[in-house]
Amino acid sequence: MAALNNHQTNSQTRLSLVSSVDTKSQVTQIRLRIYIPKCYLQAPVISQLISSYGLVVNITKAMLQPNTDQEGYFDIELRGTVPQISSGLAYLESLNLRIVGKPNADGDSWFC
């Protein structure tokens, strides 16, 4: 499992989460856990991934508690082309969100 933080924001780090594809137009997917600090609990973070970057987002788990000082998180699957996913990850990194992810592999389970 690769961890991303605001110190590793180059495109190579982002693309390391994307499984190998033959062309940049081929659709692929990745799984992420995105930690959401309290200041972003009311922000349309997931909606932006869909509307601005054309990604298909499947939320597989969420833990958000608006009346607490604790951060929440989303477990999501992002589906799109490599450039779409890379741009979406750059957006999430620009918000300084903590992101944990791993490439999808058929038949595996999500563990963080």
Top keywords for this entry?
single chain; 112 residues; alpha+beta; five-stranded antiparallel β-sheet; 3 helices; 5 strands; 23% helix; 33% strand
Model description:
Pfam families: NIL (PF09383). Residues 28-102 form the NIL domain. With 112 residues, this protein is an alpha+beta fold. The chain has helices spanning 11-16, 45-51, 82-94; strands at 2-4, 27-36, 56-63, 72-81, 98-103. It contains three helices and five strands. The chain has a five-stranded antiparallel sheet. The model is unreliable at 1-13 (pLDDT under 50).
Biggest sheet descriptor: 5 strands, antiparallel
> What is the string of SSEs from the N terminus onward?
EHEHEEHE
Q: Mean pLDDT, nearest integer?
A: 77
Note the gap between the termini: 8 Å
Strand order of the largest sheet: 1-5-2-4-3
Could you give the count of β-strands?
5
Radius of gyration (Å): 13 Å
CA-based shape:
elongated
**What proportion of the residues is helical, as a percent range?**
10-25%
